[in-house]
Design brief:
Layout: E1 11-13, H1 23-33, E2 38-48, E3 55-62, E4 64-65, H2 67-70, E5 77-86, H3 92-100, H4 120-125, E6 139-148, H5 151-157, E7 163-170, H6 175-182, E8 191-192, H7 197-226, E9 230-237, E10 239-243, E11 247-252, E12 254-256, E13 262-265, E14 272-277, E15 287-289, E16 317-320, H8 323-328, H9 337-346, E17 350-364
Parallel strand pairs: 1-2, 16-17
Antiparallel strand pairs: 2-3, 3-11, 4-8, 5-7, 5-9, 6-7, 6-17, 10-11, 12-15, 13-14, 14-17
The protein binds one DNA strand of 6 nucleotides through α6.
DNA sequence: ATGTCC
């Protein structure tokens, strides 16, 4: 059964019938099209309902910024680091014990804040948050290259089967909600760039920088705990605003597609697809899907098994001391990532470069 | 998503 999407020339939905999209998300798309200044919306195959609008879309507006499209987790995104190790030489139990200590937050090094474009004010007020994963769908994951799909691209980057990688999904922690609250806006009306929108964007950009630094600190800590040298490779936000001063491009759970390769993770029990986006794909607003997308909301997962010890096709170890969170984030709460990426390929938005397999997933060390 | 309900 296919969804019926709003008949609106401004809307493109990059999903086939195979990627089931909840009716509530489609209705939210309709509301998004009614917001002031919206000139185009690109919906991705991982689209699902969110708090103030659908997650998994890019929204282009003319002269107006809508802080509640981006929401609280300003700057959230994915960072991929390369590690100088091979999975066949990895001692899994030792790696699990090492990554369990990601929950400790003692002795964080703030020396890199200034170089990363984070002000001393923010760095000092949010020092305790720096290098912390957070909750929800955030994670740090040790991965290995499982399969090469695009051999020339992998040869070009030196990516080989069995290599180890770190994928970090996190955001601006408490800074994002603080920025959102500091810029009151009417739902649907947003803020014109010349009446408060520009001021929001200054604070927003600081949160984006803080989120990026937070991911880098997390990756650096994880590499150090594993005793492996790590090299930053990719950093791709999927919850933010970019603007040329007139057109305002919001991404809400949609990865930026003009920064090079993008890691598109499935659930904690599924592969991550490393893809090469086409930044000029017509109608896609320089964006692609940011993950598998939820197919079941968090509340509906309670009362089910947390699946922490259930074997999954990937066989990764999961560190998650919080049973409630483990249930919410169970693999069956998410769509099929292979299907989502197939939809991206069908529509010419991206090509798969390699499949990355989770080895150890860190969610949270505390309940 | 959130030093998430003190």
């Amino acid at each position: 059964m296919t969804n019926s999407y709003p008949a609106d020339a401004r809307l493109r939905v990059f999903a086939t019938a195979a990627s089931w999209i909840e009716g509530a998300a489609v209705r939210q798309l309709e509301q998004t099209l009614q917001r002031r200044g919206v000139v185009a919306v690109a919906a991705m195959p991982d689209l699902h309902p969110g708090h103030k609008g659908p997650v998994g879309c890019a929204v282009l507006a003319d002269g107006v910024v809508h802080p509640d499209i981006v929401g609280t987790d300003i700057g959230c995104g994915m960072t991929l680091w390369r590690l100088d190790g091979l999975v066949r030489r990895l001692r899994i139990d030792k790696a699990v014990r090492a990554l369990e200590r990601l929950g400790d937050t003692d002795g964080l090094d703030l020396s890199e804040a200034a170089a990363a474009g984070v002000s001393a004010d923010i760095a000092s007020r949010h020092a305790d948050a720096l290098g912390t994963v957070g909750g929800g769908n955030h994670f740090v994951e040790l991965q290995t290259v499982e399969r090469i799909i695009d051999a020339p691209s992998c040869a070009e980057t030196g990516l080989e089967v069995g290599a180890l990688l770190l994928l970090v999904h996190s955001g601006s922690r408490a800074l994002g909600p603080e920025v959102l609250a500091r810029h009151p806006h009417a739902h649907g009306e947003g803020l014109r760039l010349d009446e408060g929108g520009a001021a929001y964007l200054v604070d927003h950009d600081a949160a984006v920088a803080f989120a990026r630094l937070n991911r880098a600190v997390l990756a650096k800590r994880a590499a150090a705990l594993l005793g492996l040298d790590g090299t930053p490779w990719l950093d791709v936000p999927h919850n933010h605003v970019t603007t040329d001063g007139v057109e305002v491009l919001h991404r809400k759970g949609a990865a930026q597609a003009d920064l090079g390769l993008v890691p598109v993770p499935g659930s904690r029990g599924a592969m991550t697809y490393l893809v090469r986006p086409d930044p000029d794909a017509p109608g896609a607003l320089r964006s692609i899907a940011h993950g598998a997308g939820r197919k079941r909301d968090r509340a509906s997962m309670q009362g089910k098994s947390d699946q922490r010890d259930r074997p999954n096709p990937v066989g990764n170890r999961v560190i998650c001391a919080d049973a409630k969170l483990a249930r919410e984030e169970a693999p069956e709460a998410y769509k099929n990532i292979a299907r989502v990426v197939a939809d991206l390929e069908t529509h010419g938005l991206a090509r798969t470069v390699a499949l990355l397999k989770p080895v150890v997933t860190f969610k949270t060390g505390r309940a």
